[in-house]
Structure formats: C-alpha cells, structure tokens
Specification:
Layout lengths: L1 H36 L2 H6 L2 E4 L6 H6 L4 E3 L4 H14 L7 E4 L12 H7 L2 H17 L4 E2 L23 H16 L12 E5 L18 H8 L1 H8 L4 E4 L3 E2 L2 E2 L4 H11 L5 E4 L6 H4 L6 H11 L4 E2 L9 H10 L5 H17 L10 H6 L4 H15 L1 E5 L12 E5 L25 H8 L5 E5 L12 H9 L3 E7 L20 H9 L5 E6 L7 H6 L2 E4 L7 H9 L63 E8 L3 E2 L5 E9 L5 E11 L10 E10 L4 E8 L6 E2 L5 E2 L3 E8 L5 E8 L2
Parallel strand pairs: 1-2, 1-10, 2-3, 3-4, 5-6, 6-9, 12-13, 12-14, 14-15, 15-16, 18-26
Antiparallel strand pairs: 7-8, 11-16, 17-19, 19-22, 20-21, 20-25, 23-24, 25-26
The chain binds alpha-D-glucopyranose (GLC).
Alpha-D-glucopyranose (GLC) binds next to loops.
Length: about 725
C-alpha cells in the first residue's frame, strides 16, 4: 500500500514538474522566436516607458518605439492605444500599462505604514486584490508597488509608503502585497503584475533626506535592506524598480553587484528591472556618467532593463543612445537582447499577447460590490489604528454624551485622509473624522466642530472660539498631525514634531480642564513628548483612506477594540534618530548608574513608544513560555509554546510577537530580532495556548565572508505584545 502511495505521488510530481518545464519551454520558444524577428529599433523600443498618454504619438506606437506607458486610467483609452500597437505595428507587440497603485486604485485603503500597523498580512493581501481588479478594469497591467524599503529614519517622507523598520514584518508584508496584486494566475483578469521598489536601500538615505547618499556595509545591506526584496522575488514578483540613491559609491540604477550579481545570479530573478523616474539620466548628476549615452551604457550593462523616460521621449536615454552604443560595439547586442527577452517574457506571462485588450464587459459582472470593497477598507482602517495612551480608561467614549467638541483642520478635510500617493480616488467615498463621529453618536449628542487652526501656519485667531466650545463640552477630540503632502516622495522633514500651532492649541484646550483625546493623522512617527505627558488619550490613525471617519469613530466609541501595533519606533526627539529596537549592544550598553555608557546628556535613550507597541481596551498576560527541550542541533526546528490570557472585560485581538536574541556570535548581532508573530482574538477572560515553530533559517546570519551561517551557542526567546515588554526563555544550539 505504502509503495503504491509513493508511486502515486511521484507520478503527480513528475506530471506537475514536466508541465512546468513544458510551460517554460513554450514561453522561451515564443519569446526567442519573436526576439529573432525584431529589428534593433524595435528591440530598443521594448525598453522604453513613457509617462502620460499625451507624450505618445501614433507613429511611436506603429513603429514599436514604446513598450510601456505610465498613467493610463481609462479602459477605452488603453484599448485605443493598444489597438495601434497591436494592429498597426510590424510585430504587434502589446503595450504594458503601468500605474502607481500603492494603497488602492478607486477604493483608497490606509497608507502602507498604517496597513503595517494592522500586522494582518491576509487582510492586506485582500486589499491588494481589490486594488488589482479595480486597476485591471481600468487598463492597468502592472503596479509600481509594493514599496518594500526598510527605513529607520522617520524624517524620510517615504516611510509612509512602506512597512516601517523591521525586516521580518517588512518581508511578510512584501509577500502579502505581491500575492494580493498578482494573485494565483498572472493572466487572470483580476490580477496585475507587481513591482517591488526601490531597489535597494533607498530608505537608508543619510539624514532621512530623500534621494540622499546611502553608504552601508554589505552585512547591513544583506541583513536589513535586501531581505524584503528577496521575499518579493520568492513570491514571484514580475518586476523590480531600481532606486535613485547612490549605494556605496555606485548608484543603485547602475549597480551591477545588486542588479545582476545578487538579483539575477544569487536569487535567480527572471523578471525585468525598470528604472525609477529619470534615475538613469541622473547618473550624470551623480557624476557617475559624463553624459546620457554613458549613463545608458552603464545602466543597461548593470542590469536595468527598462527606462522610465519621463513625459517626453527626449527625456529617454535608452531611445536615443542605445542604437549607436550597439552599432559602435560599445555594448554587446547580447546584453540588449537579454533585457528585451525579460520584458517580452513578462508581457507573455501577463497574457498580453493573448488578451491585449481590457474586457470591459467582463468587469461589469466580475467586480466585488462597492459595499464589499468598502467593508475591507473599513476593517483594514480599524486594524491600522494604534492606541498609544489611555489614561484612566478615558476611552472608549460613551455614544450618548451630551456634547462633544471636535477641533482641527484635519477633522473636516476630504483630501488628507487619502494620504500620499493616490491613483484614482473617489472623493465622495471619503468619510472624514468629523463625519464619522457625527454618524456615530446618538441623536441627543451635540457635536460642535471648530477648525481652531490650520495644520501649517501661525494663525491663532480661531483659538478663542475653540476654547469656548471646549469649555461647554463633555469631551474634546483634537484631530492633529500632518497634511498628506508632508510625507511621501520629496517630503522629508528635519523636525518631526506636530507642525504649525496645533500643539499650542492643544495646550490651550487642556487648560480648560476638559478631557482631551488626541487623534493623530500623519505619515510618519512624530515626536510628541508633550502630548504623551499631558493628554490622557492618544490614537495614532496615520492616513486611513476612504473609511477614516468610520474607523476612528468605531475605535473612539468602543465598537472596535484597537489592536494596532507600531511598525516603526517613535523617538522622543529627532536627535535620537536613527532609533530602532533591533540595535546592537555596543561595548558600553546604556546603564543609568554609569556615566560612561551609550546615552545622551539631554534625553532618555529609550524611545517614546517602541516598535510593536500598541494598547488595547483590554489587557493581556503572557505566561509559561517554554521550548520542547533545551538543546537542539542546527537543523532542528524549535517548538515554542506559551499561554496568553485576556485578563480584561472586553474581547480583543493581540499581536503576539516572538523575538530572538543570539547571545554571542562571530559578528555583533542585534539585541533582538522579530522572527514571528500571530494576531489572535481572545474573548474576555479567555486563555489560549500559542504555538510557534522556529525554523533554523531564523537563527542564521551573514558572517564576515557573507556566508549565511548558524553558530552554536545560547539563544533567548522573548515573547510579548511589543519589543519592550515580554517574557523569556532560553535554548542552546549544539554542534
Ligand atoms: C516616482 C517614485 C516611484 C514611482 C515612479 C513612477 O519618482 O520614486 O516610486 O513609482 O516615480 O511614478
């Protein structure tokens, strides 16, 4: 019987493997036979993306001079342009239509940093599925997402677009987003290709200044900045976008080591690499190329396959220069052919040769309902909210309070909840915090709204009106933070405090003695020591998209018990940056009783709020953490179990986080690293056994020779509701 089962499964495996090989052979045959028919001009055309349709002429399309267009958001226009490319060009190679679908297409979800606060990969994947089908129905084939840049510097505005500071969380969410966009079948009408960006280490820009220099060790590159890209490649991402930044002296968009040695030779990535917007001609600004022709040569040779040529083909560097570079034998045509092959391969995998046109009729009956999409947006928004403080359980508020005053420009603005990077948002779908609160409270509750002040500027003329209103209310809800323009691209801030005079207004309102709830709307961790000191309740809501107001109201009034956890550290002041939980020990770890240890004279060394931190309206207790035994070999899984109890009176979800410390190693290791987590629902009073399995790869690290190794020795497991409060146990790895 056993033999028959083995034979049966072997047969299935053989059939499956042979069908994969057959598919690959069929794909290679198609691509190579097409490539062999192409002229040099047509090959170069496949490496050019133009931005916005107005820059594209019919002649360019019929000559095959354009491969891809960024910014088409209309199915009819997409089909019109595609028809020229497919039916009026010599070889009929279809166009690829791209867009930046970062956190939703029509339905706007929370910004990625907010989504990361949910620690819910499945829900994030579901949101990306919705974004994919909305985008596909409007002609998009590929999104320039996910942003998988790790960053430890909240001055950097693009922290808003990624998953924060942690490699493990960032890698898990990179996979979830790629899977959400690409689905199980790239040719499915509800799937679009994904593009992991910005390759690589863009988030390590010195001083948090966007586009700035990056200079890090290879160990740091491999331990921190590369893994989320490797996770995306492992999930089958079809493209990668090369970054703007200089990386250890070689700009990321001309860096053979990262683009070819690592991405292709080590990881086996077979999709295509597209440059970030103008990053190839910017090699001249880096003073790494003397002119655009040299820039083109260096980028193509390093491994950048497609050039985003801006909104005019004259901005392209591949279009005008590759012809002469090839015909003058400065670059081998083999290099060009390999790049063209990769682009054709992905167009083939996306099914563009079989179905180049948007099937408009299909989406009329194959789109999730508006209600379903908004329901996902609301759930993800709720789970993205982080409760930072709740002194004397001020929250949740009663729904039948007599009077509530809501203050702040952000409370009543339909644009800011969308956050940075939107594709085709529908503004009438946006529920502002004020609207959400008004929808939620009883009809007997008076909700007074006073703007009080703008997010920016020094005008305090409306302070008096706000103070008067506050005096006559039971509670004051202050919606404060940043505008949506203060984070995202080219939006670094040297001071990450609350902008303008908003904090002054909070101080005036707290003088009334009325209870104040601060609701933050922002795209990065902010330095809020005064708020933490003086305001009884603080909610971090980031930018939550369409369902902002409903999510904020459900948390404020207790219909949803907040479960969010910070994906990035909140420093006490900007001088502490970079500040992150997985730091090294140093030779003089902080010791408050010893002057000569790693600390400051003027601020505590600890963060205001740690990575992984977030409160609930209930409480959780961790106990009885243990492994199945004490000694393990390098290739054994370590089974871990503990008990977590909801000791409060409310049901709630807890993100149970597992960190590992390698106590001694041949390379200095972080004090701890997140290696697993589970988001678990508990009824009030409920205790659950939580099991983790630590696989050997989670103990490995890069040694000085760049080998990924596991060394014998003692390891500490820390499990808790954040990176600062946990219980521990030990185990040993033996030779
Ligand atoms: C921008 C961004 C990149 C985006 C690209 C195309 O400059 O850096 O994230 O995908 O250009 O819009």
């Amino acid at each position: 019987m056993k033999n028959r089962i083995i034979i049966y499964f072997t047969a299935i495996l053989l059939v499956f493997t042979s069908s994969l090989i057959a598919q690959e052979e069929k794909e290679n045959l198609f691509v190579d036979s097409l490539l062999n028919k192409m002229t040099l001009e047509e090959k170069i055309g496949q490496l050019v993306e133009l931005v916005t349709p107005k820059s594209v002429t019919k002649k360019m399309l019929s000559n095959g001079n354009v491969s891809s267009i960024l910014g088409i958001k209309d199915a009819d226009l997409a089909n019109e342009l595609q028809q020229i490319a497919v039916e009026e060009s010599r070889l009929g190679i279809p166009l690829l239509f791209t867009n930046d679908v970062i956190h939703g297409y029509n339905t706007t979800f929370p910004i990625p940093l907010a989504e990361a606060s949910s620690w819910n990969p499945e829900l994030i994947e579901e949101a990306c599925r919705i974004a994919a089908v909305e985008a596909a129905s409007n002609g998009t084939h590929l999104t320039f997402a996910p942003v998988v840049d790790i960053t430890r510097d909240p001055r950097w505005g693009r922290i808003a677009e990624g998953s924060g500071e942690d490699v493990y969380l960032g890698s898990i969410l990179a996979k979830a987003r790629v899977k959400g966009f690409q689905g199980n079948d790239l040719k499915d009408k509800s799937s679009i290709g994904a593009c992991a960006k910005h390759y690589v280490a863009y988030g390590a820009a010195e001083a948090g200044k966007d586009y700035n220099t990056v200079d890090i060790s290879e160990i740091t590159l491999r331990e921190i900045y590369l893994p989320p890209f490797k996770a995306a490649v492992g999930e089958g991402v079809v493209s990668i976008m090369s970054a703007f930044n200089d990386l250890n002296g070689i700009p990321a968009s001309a860096n053979y080591f990262t683009l070819t040695q690592i991405l292709r030779n080590e990881w086996g990535f077979d999709g295509f690499v597209i440059s970030d917007y103008n990053s190839i001609p910017e090699l001249v600004n880096h003073r790494f190329a003397q002119n655009k022709a040299e820039a083109a040569a260096k980028a193509l040779t390093a491994g950048v396959d497609m050039d985003i040529a801006g909104n005019d083909i004259k901005w392209s560097v591949y279009a005008p220069h590759l012809d002469s570079l090839i015909t003058n034998n400065i670059i081998s045509e083999d290099i060009l052919n390999e790049s063209v092959r990769r682009v054709l391969r992905i167009k083939y995998r996306l099914g563009l040769f079989e179905n180049p046109y948007v099937d408009i009729e299909y989406y009329k009956t194959n789109m999730p309902s508006f209600e379903e999409r908004q329901k996902t947006a609301l759930q993800l928004a709720k789970e993205s909210i982080v409760l930072l403080k709740n002194q004397d359980e001020l929250l949740p508020l009663k729904k039948d309070l007599k009077s509530i005053t809501v203050i702040g420009e952000l409370a009543d603005n339909i644009h800011h909840p969308l956050g940075p990077w939107n594709t085709a948002p529908i503004l009438e779908n946006v529920v502002t915090p004020l609207a959400g609160i008004k929808n939620y409270v009883s009809e007997n509750t008076e909700v007074i709204y006073i703007k009080g002040c703008s997010v920016e500027g020094i005008d305090k003329s409306e302070f008096g009106e706000a103070i008067d209103a506050a005096k006559n209310s039971d509670v004051v809800i202050m919606i404060i933070g940043e505008t949506r323009e203060m984070s995202g691209e080219a939006a670094s801030r040297s001071d990450i405090g609350i902008p303008g005079v908003q904090l002054d207004l909070v101080k005036e309102i707290t003088k009334t003695g009325k209870p104040v709830v601060a609701v933050l709307m922002n795209g990065r961790p902010l330095t809020i020591p005064w708020l933490d000191e003086s305001v009884p309740a603080i909610l971090e809501t980031w930018f939550l998209g369409d369902q902002t107001g409903n999510a904020v109201a459900e948390v404020l009034f207790g219909d949803y018990n907040p479960s969010g956890k910070l994906p990035a550290t909140f420093p006490r002041n900007v001088g502490q940056i970079p500040l992150y939980y997985s730091h090294k020990s140093t030779g003089r770890p902080f010791n408050e009783d010893d002057k000569y240890t790693a600390k400051y004279l003027d601020v505590d060394v600890t963060p205001l709020y740690s990575f992984g931190y977030g409160l609930s309206y209930t409480q959780f207790e961790y106990a009885d953490l243990r492994t199945s035994k004490e000694f393990y070999t390098k290739d054994e899984n370590i089974d871990v179990v503990l008990e977590v109890t909801n000791t409060g009176k409310r049901n709630g979800e807890e993100v149970v986080q597992l960190y590992i410390t390698d106590k001694f190693a041949s390379v200095t290791r972080p004090v701890k690293e997140l290696k697993d987590f589970q988001k678990v629902f508990f009824k009030a009073g409920e205790t659950k056994k939580i099991n983790f399995t630590i696989t050997p790869d989670k103990l490995s690290f890069y040694d000085v020779y760049m080998n990924k190794i596991i060394e014998p020795g003692e390891f500490v497991i820390s499990v808790g509701g954040n990176s600062h409060d946990y219980i521990t146990t030990l185990f040993q790895i033996i030779e």
